[in-house]
Amino acid sequence: MFRHGSLLCLAFASGALAQTYSATYLPTNAPNQTEQGQSGTNQCGTGNSQNSTCQNLFVNAIDDWCIFAPPDPGPDSVIGNTERIEVAWCIKPGHGTRLIPDGAITGAHFVQTPDYVQVTGVGDLTKINIPQGDEGGELDPHGADGNGNPIGGLVFTSAFGTLAQAHEWTNFVAFDEFCIRVCKDGPNAPALCQHIYDVMGCEWNMPGDYSNGTFDSCQGDTGEPMGVYGTSTWFQGVNPTPSAHPAPATSSCVPTSTIGNGLAASATSSGASASGSAGSKSGSATGSGSRSASSAGASATGGAGNGAAPLLGRGATLELMVAGAAVLVGAGLVV
Predict the structure, then answer these.
(1) Using CA atoms, how far apart are residues 293 and 248, in angstroms rounded to an integer?
(2) Could you give the C-alpha distances from 325 to 15, 56, 213, 298, in angstroms and in order?
(3) Scanning 14, 41, 88, 210, which has its CA 20 to 30 A from the CA of 94?
(4) Which residues, at least 6 apart from 270, have a Cβ–Cβ distance to it below 8 Å?
């Protein structure tokens, strides 16, 4: 059992955050770039290209979702080095992005809840430029400076009605596992798409189905906010590290045999210079976390250059503000 000292209510802070979004876009009216220092573009068109620098994601259905991944292959393209310049990789053509080649995703599970949509799964993500063995890290709309990882990355979903921008989302990618959660705008969104647990990985942040060899779409219950246990909130780097919440119940699951777009993996190094071609790479990463967490505590693992310091060691006052939580130094969960 955990208790907490000196904690401001996460829900209260999250409610305040929900009123501070500076802009709302659609893919059809987004500017070329939405943040200063952005390497890619948000004007992506409706084609697709394996050279695209589009930084718009879409999460709509089991056969229509995207994740962020590096723009270039190579051993230095670990997520910790490239988190500021990732580009969009999608299952479905027509978003102006790069396509995830057929066979790269070997298991994927789409869940629609009242408050968020989520895709979890596994595969060979070296086919989208993540180096073999890279335990990966987190991408989110905030980052340490409020400009997002990647800078200027936007996410859209039609899961709650007409297509709209989602202002709160979180995406983890590693060489063999991925997860993305997109929250419905509202007072609960910052807590349910919390981004401060960047070294804790997919299965801790987004409990769900990560099984290989199957693809399905389910209805689901809204899960507990990551890091929140009753009236207590755990903060990364404070020992002991609590277990992940159990995966929420799902129902009405509809299997599908496979997902894809007809693009062979061998074609990913080529492609037309169609949409999403603006901008040159810029920015550098301070590092993201691993895809899975050690039971002994939150520590980063994986490829060179992608180890992250605990939240309070990142010097990110803005990170705490955007996370919707207030922390007194030294305050944490204790047994």
Answers:
(1) 20
(2) 11, 27, 38, 19
(3) 210
(4) 50
Q: Which two tokens stand for residue 12?
A: 């209260």
Q: What are phi and psi of 155, to 5 degrees?
A: -130, 135
Task: Determine the Cα–Cα distance for residues 335 and 333; give it in Å rounded to an integer.
Answer: 7
Q: Among 125-139, 198-212, 262-276, which stretch is predicted with the lowest mean pLDDT?
A: 262-276
Mean pLDDT of 295-322: 33
Are the beta carbons of 138 and 172 closer than 8 angstroms?
A: yes
* Residue 15 DSSP class: H
Tell me the C-alpha to C-alpha distance, in Å, between residue 139 and each of 136, 235, 309, 329, 333: 10, 18, 16, 25, 26
Confidence of residue 319 (pLDDT cuts 50, 70, 90): very low
Taking only the tens place, the pLDDT of each residue in 61-101 is 999 999 999 999 999 999 999 999 999 999 999 999 999 99
Name residue 81's amino acid. Answer: N
Measured on CA atoms in the order 11, 15, 16, 20, is the torsion positive or negative?
Answer: positive
Give the C-alpha separation, 201 to 172, whole Å.
Answer: 7
239 backbone dihedrals φ, ψ, rounded to 5° = -95, 145
Helical residues (DSSP H) of the chain, grouped into ranges = 10-17, 79-82, 189-192, 201-205, 317-323
pLDDT of residue 267: 54
Residues 26-49: tens digit of each pLDDT: 999 999 999 999 999 999 999 999
Q: Coil, helix or strand for 172? A: strand
Q: What angle do CA 77, 172, 272 make, to 5 degrees?
A: 55
- The answer to whether 331 and 7 have CB atoms below 8 angstroms apart is yes
Q: Which residues contact 9 (CB under 8 A, 6 or more apart)?
A: none
